[in-house]
Amino acid sequence: MLKRYSQFLESLMLIADLLAISASWIAAYYLRFYWGPVPVYRGIPRIHPYLILLGLIVIIWGVAFKAFGLYRPRRISSRLAEVRDIAQACSLAVLILVALTFFLKQFEFSRLVILYFWVFSILSVSLVRASFREILRLMRRKGYNLRHVLLIGEGALSQRVVNRIHARPDMGLRIVGLLAGDPKMVGETVGDLRILGTYEQAGELVEELSIDKVFIAIPLEAYGRLEGILRSLEEGFVDIKVVPDLYQYVTLRGGVEEFDGLPLVNLQDSPLYGWNLVAKRIMDIVLSSVALLITAPVQLLLAAIVKLTSPGPILYRQERMGLDGRTFRMLKFRSMIDDAEDDGGAVWATRDDPRRTSIGALLRRTSLDEMPQLFNVLKGEMSLVGPRPERPVFIEEFRKRIPRYMLRHKVKAGMTGWAQVNGWRGDTSLERRIECDLYYIEHWSPLFDLKILWLSLWKGFLHKNAI
Fold first, then answer.
1. Exposed site from 85, 206, 238, 251, fewest CB < 10 Å?
2. Helical spans, DSSP H, in 68-155
3. pTM of structure
4. What does residue 190 show for φ and ψ, rounded to 5 degrees?
5. In what order do the strands lie in the sheet with 189-190?
6. What is the pLDDT of residues 115-151, one digit of tens each?
7. How many CA atoms are closer than 13 Å to the CA of 342, on its beta-carbon side?
């Protein structure tokens, strides 16, 4: 009965998709020749050949959608993933259509119609799917179209699975009960769920309770029993999902991806790759170039003041650690005497540091000494926004006593950052600073960068914790 119901929903979705595709093709024809902004120079072609080609289009798109698995159960996948698959399937189908129409010499189809159709097909099918999912969501909230789940596991990991399923009633998953590793726990209740048996009883309970899906969320130390669990389930037709007990080791932007059919679990990753990396770099180049032009008179004035008020170079080049642990020379207007570290070596700056020059205290308090770092940004050694870089000699100490400290080097160091606009700069808590840095990396986006830049300007460069 359940299988027939799933097939009915699949057929209904296929029909809705093909109707959307057909409407998109006809709409593309009328937009090109009747409604669109592009003028028609050689007369309006008859719609009859386009309607004939529609039969071939329906077949191509139907096959492409099947090939991309658009009709497999998607209760626990994201809507964004479905839209991505729709776009990929439609793009492949359009390429096939273009190739086939090239060989149809009797009639030349408008390439602009095909372009419009490609866009319309993605949008219309995505809208149909969203509407379809919303109807199913409402039905599931009322108790219809449910799937019965057996959860194998106990402890914190299985509780997280329970919490996620309870938080998403729209997925239509109902947990029937739990299986535990210890026979003594059978019959006990965990929350509102009853422990029905042990791991090895999974197969018989799946059949007895008409289970549709099995979630295996056993603790890492129980993985030796995983083979026995799977053997007990191999005779049935139930869907099996394994939730790996690696959550405790996920440190930064963890997730799951696939490499040539091989599932990979990311325990830590950087958000800055691909187009994200390109977007951030373009923003750095454009904004730092504009900032250099605007601040050039101020920087020239500061350079003259530094030179006139104390002997030594205008700029101070200090070794700092940036992306992936690579070191670079960070530029600053010199705010301390020229031989400040000749005697004691690298020393953490303190409030009212006696090594400061007469103008140095003002430069550091107002952060004007940081302005030459715009050249580091333009060169690609730093970013406008990111965790503030530290000196390698201090990092060796910090990494030993502060957990996850080195994760801040998964992105480029910045002139300003989330920690700085929240007041964690200078001689303040390193732990809180790291929390802010990791929050920034986890939630990075171009808009977040712009927000931090705006807050840096809005709050000004003057700060009580600047030393």
1. 251
2. 79-102, 111-141
3. 0.56
4. -115, 110
5. 189-190, 193-198, 173-180, 147-152, 213-216, 239-242
6. 999 999 999 999 998 887 777 777 766 666 678 889 9
7. 6
